[in-house]
Amino acid sequence: MESETIIDHSEPVRQFSVLLQNRAGALAALVKLLRLSHIEVIGLSMQDSRDATVARLVVSDPSCTEQLFMEKGIPFTTCELIVIAMRESGPGLLQCLDTLMIAETNIDFAYALMPSPEGRSMLAMHVEDYEFAVAVLHQSGFMLMYQEDLSR
Q1: Please, which pLDDT band fits residue 22 given cuts at 50, 70 and 90?
Q2: What are the beta bridge partners of residue 107?
Q3: Burial code of 106-141, b = ≥16 C-beta within 10 A, e = fewer?
Q4: Distance (Å, whole) CA 20 – CA 27
Q5: pLDDT tens, 50-107?
Q6: Could you give the C-alpha distances from 151 to 35, 71, 78, 82, 98, in angstroms and in order?
Q7: Which contacts qualify for 57-60: CB closer than 8 Å, 24 or more apart?
Q8: Which structural domains are found in the chain, ordered by start?
Q9: 59 CB contacts (<8 Å, ≥6 apart)?
Q10: SS3 116
Q11: Which is more confidently placed, 118 or 91?
Q12: How far apart are CA 88 and CA 66, in angstroms?
């Protein structure tokens, strides 16, 4: 089937989680470092505490980002995200959430990304079972975005 080919050969969107010191300018310094390597931040989520901040980043070039972080000694982790593109946020979001609920798939966390080049709203989600959620959303007609769609 053609839809299976798309799923099997498309690279999932990778998220980087980086622990930053909780001080003014830490995130700006990280983004500047990425920009110097021509890497754009496409999505960002912050989880702050008194001592440290976890920055979750979706970037335009994950391979270069990984290499840069290793070269600079920046500790990070990665995970795969499902990204859906929607024409409108309200009905599309509810339909997506209902589809995953009916399939009994949990969402661990989610956040919006910068609009796609076509101006569509995009939602990034980390789910308990990536392959299953991709299949369910694809079969339900959602527009899934992959890393090659986000690399600008």
Answers
A1: confident
A2: 127
A3: ebeebbebeebeeebbbbbbbbeebeebbebbbeee
A4: 7
A5: 777 899 999 999 999 999 999 999 999 999 999 998 876 566 788 888 899 889 889 9
A6: 14, 22, 17, 15, 29
A7: 57/15, 57/16, 57/17, 57/18, 58/13, 58/14, 58/15, 58/16, 58/83, 58/113, 58/124, 58/150, 59/16, 59/34, 60/150, 60/151, 60/152
A8: 2-12+81-150 (3.30.2130.10), 14-79 (3.30.2130.10)
A9: 16, 34, 39, 40, 41, 42, 65
A10: coil
A11: 118
A12: 33
CB atoms within 10 A of CB 85: 19
Could you report the per-residue pLDDT of 31-49, keeping only the tens digit for each? 999 999 999 999 999 887 7
Between vectors from CA 93 to CA 87 and to CA 94, what angle results, nearest 5°? 130
pLDDT of residue 151: 77
38, 41, 69, 130 from 108: Cα distances, Å? 30, 21, 25, 11
Q: At what angle do helices 62-72 and 26-36 cross, to 10 degrees?
A: 120
At 7 the pLDDT is 45
